[in-house]
Amino acid sequence: MSQALQSKGPAWIHLKTLKKREDAAKQWDERAEAILRGEARNLWDIFEERGFIKDVAGRPESIKELMRTKRIGAYVGVDPTAPSLHLGHLLPMMPVFWMYLHGYRAVTLIGGATARIGDPTGRLQSRETMSNSEIATNITRIHYQMKKLWTNVEAEKHKYGYQRTWDMSRHLVNNNTWWQSLSLYDVMKRLGRYVRMGPMLSRDTVKNKMEKGDGMSVAEFMYPLMQGWDWWHMYSKLGVQMQVGGSDQYGNIVTGIESIKTIRASETAEHLKIAETWKDDPIGFTVPLLTDGAGTKFGKTAGNAIWLDPTMTSAFSLYGYLVRRPDDEVEQLLKYFTFMPVPDITKLMEEHGQDPPKRVAQHKLAFEVLALVHGAEVATREQHQHRLMYSKGGAAAVPVPTGDPSEYQAADGRPVTPNNAPRMDMQLPRSVLSMSPAKILHATGLAASTSEGHRILAQSGAYVAARPGDSMRELIPGNLDWTPMKLWQPQAVQTFLIDGRVLILRKGKHNVRIIEMVSDEEWKASGKTYPGEPGTGKTRQAMAVLRELAEAEGKTLSQKELYRLAQEKLAAEEETTVVNNPDIRFPNKLERMKVLGELKPKGK
Hints:
Pfam families: tRNA-synt_1b, TyrRSs_C
Family: Belongs to the class-I aminoacyl-tRNA synthetase family.
Structural class: alpha/beta
Radius of gyration: 29 Å
Enzyme class: ligase
Keywords: Aminoacyl-tRNA synthetase, ATP-binding, Ligase, mRNA processing, Nucleotide-binding, Protein biosynthesis
CATH superfamily of the largest domain: HUPs
GO molecular function: ATP binding; RNA binding; tyrosine-tRNA ligase activity
Oligomer: single chain
């Protein structure tokens, strides 16, 4: 008997995996036959029905047949040129989410490398060069936004009855992980030597930027080839045959298809060659342009972006924006941004038509989008807040919202999840860097105290954005890697500053801080304080006030007496507000005593 068969564990696992793959392939074939018989729907038909398809790179009939017979992979990419995704980014992601729900491989890509070049498509002016700290900040924020979206897609999958299958797969990747080790020579050898200048120079993006804009750099000219190489990497490693892009990405998709075919044909090693049949060809499509009420494209450049980061566009404001959508837009938006079956959308629109002022369809749209972007709990909360704040006589007619409550904060004591993670970005004075790592964790709010910070560090529960391993070196620009924090000496954390001004920390999976270091003078002028800041504790401040009052009356109080009186004062003045609505507050102890008649004048 061979050694492989004698090793019962690994052989059994290997055979089991093969059996699962065989079963998955059989199930896919059965599904393909059901589609052919008309018993199940082809996902391409669903895309057409929901209006996702604008321009197609490939023959639609062939793509439809390919999606019926083969479990292809699809990807959508975003360059982190802003600190957040916006609603316009969500539209090309939706077909990829749909593909995941239907059992295809789904990939979302963050362009940590390509963001440094900047996509020139549709632009006359070159993008401003981004610093390492800006790139690192944006990558971190968008990485966790995408993780949050995928978490909520999983919840939507269960909500709408999609079954989990063994071969369902999704990936979140950063193209800097392969570009950092890729040489220019390799790119030129496999791709550059075969690309003709004529077709690239004839592209509208190149013509317009050269003739009407500020010219085009070599890097911008090469951008479509970089994007094409990204696609090739995922095509060869993950089986990604389809790219989904925004409405202006058709040219880049076509260039990517040509790049894959070129690189594929240039392979000299027989065992690495990929078949060149129609079932192996790359394909792609773009989604329609998402515009605002004035017909302007969404985006930070236009200044009308509806951000998916709740610190930039609050969940309340996002809900209100969607509730304000006019009746002639809401049906299409439901098809774009929800997983509701089209027959259900049709019924909802019929109900909406019976009493349009209720805005039933708009509220459903707002709830579904918030459930996808921020989670079902936040969606439910914002729906209730809107109905309470704007309804008349209950939850009947809901006028268009215009307010904006305070930012959402995760509830104390609850596990941090993608949907309730506290705000990431913050400022701290540069003097914090001279403290121990445990005190820094306390200052950032990642630890409730310095002693808890020590426990977290001892258990390797906190991380700093840096090169992996024990090299104590700063983060590679464009990457998002973590290394465990240790009980280092004070000032050691300075090693990990990005551009000398930004520090990125994490506790657990989702609790992240992006800290901008400012001068101590600027910090003092801001009037802010941080946990553990010397001389800023509430008790210490109360003691100082009581000491001044006592001295004004000619009294001298001991430290023990001052401490006791300060504790009593703080307990009496403590008040509680409703989470997410600071306008609603409960009375403090002194106020309650007055109302109950328990606070009587001295000597009576």
